[in-house]
Design a protein that fits this description.
Blueprint (H helix, E strand, L loop, with lengths): L1 E3 L7 E6 L3 H10 L3 E6 L4 H8 L1 E4 H10 L4 H18 L2 E5 L20 H4 L2 H4 L2 H4 L25 E7 L3 H9 L7 E7 L1
Parallel strand pairs: 2-7, 3-6, 3-7, 4-5, 5-6
Antiparallel strand pairs: 1-2
Helix pairs in contact: 3-4
Length: about 190
């Protein structure tokens, strides 16, 4: 693992091999940060399909632009995945593919849907008064099905994953993530 100088705004940046991804994410999470992962291998997506709840934000974003989805429909898919991951204590991976979705303007909504401004703030999102706003009445239950008992698992983690193809798209994504200071950047090299 190679530590790098702190990038503009992010908590830290490191370069790892794919085999170190799980432990790098865990170390980052235990330090109170989310992870922004740039993958040069193209294999992290496959890893996270087995080790996390992965949402293809790239396809949702493109779907919005071509009229396949409304913004509300796309954000509802993200919101449902977020609620599921919070309840189960899973990692929620927002897979961006080769694009840089705008989580500050386009891929965000109000406090009852997908408020990226709050969700992407590690400490604020862990406050019950914030995360409970997106939970619908039929989702308000714990893992055992007890009604009105939803709570976010302490193990919930958020990861934004992008295939690292070019510096311009990489920088664009960094600029489009609210509260980048809540993220550690993890670069996966060959």
């Amino acid at each position: 693992m190679v530590e790098s100088a702190k990038p503009s705004g992010a908590a830290s940046e490191k370069t790892i091999k794919l085999t170190q991804l799980d432990s790098a994410c865990e170390i980052s999470f235990n330090s109170g940060h989310y992870q922004l992962v740039f993958d040069k291998t193209g294999n992290a997506e496959v890893f996270f399909r087995y080790k996390a709840h992965l949402i293809e934000v790239n396809k949702l974003s493109i779907g919005i632009s071509i009229g396949k989805y409304t913004k509300e429909e796309a954000l509802e898919q993200i919101r449902r995945g977020l609620v599921y991951s919070m309840r189960s204590g899973d990692r929620l991976v927002l897979f961006c593919g080769n694009i840089a979705p705008d989580f500050k303007a386009t891929m965000t909504s109000d406090a009852k849907n997908f408020p990226a401004e709050v969700v992407f703030n590690f400490n604020e999102w862990r406050k019950e008064e914030n995360y409970k706003k997106i939970v619908r009445a039929d989702e308000d239950h714990d893992l055992m099905g007890n009604k009105n008992m939803f709570w976010m698992s302490e193990k919930f983690d958020l990861i934004v994953l992008q295939n690292d193809d070019d510096e311009e798209t990489r920088q664009e994504l960094i600029e489009r993530i609210p509260h980048i200071e809540s993220f550690d950047i993890i670069n996966i090299q060959q």
